[in-house]
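Progress against Task 2.4 (sequence-to-structure conversion) is shown through the following example record, which the project officer requested during the mid-term review.
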Amino acid sequence: MKTEDVRVADVAGFDATFFTNSQATGLPIAAVDDIELKFDPLASRILTEAYEANP
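Structure tokens generated for the chain above:
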């Protein structure tokens, strides 16, 4: 497993960002502070399918 610090300025360059935990299937994050973030429907679908395939 790899861990890495992520700065707010770095997040703007991501293809998509999600909040996830044991109750949420990957909720897209629209913005952090005043930085609007991208939403990738394909990434969202892949994340949801992976989550549902691993109960």
